[in-house]
Amino acid sequence: MNAPEGPSNDLASRVQQFLDERRRLGFKLQAAFRMLPAFERFVAKADHTGPLTIDLMVQWASQVHDRHMVDGQADRGTVARRLVVLRPFMRWLQQFEPATEVPDDSSVGALPGRVAPHIYCEAEMVALLEAARQLGPSDGLRAATYTTLFGLLASTGLRISEALNLNDVDVDLDGALLTIRQTKFGKSRQVLLHPSAIGPLATYRALRRQHVRSSLNTTFFVSSRGVRLGAPLGDRQAHRMFEQLRRQLGWVDRGGHGQPRIHDIRHSFAVRRLILWHEQGADLDQRMLALSTYMGHVKISNTYWYLSGVPELMALVGARFEHYADLGACDYE
Question: For 122-249, CATH number?
Answer without folding.
Answer: 1.10.443.10
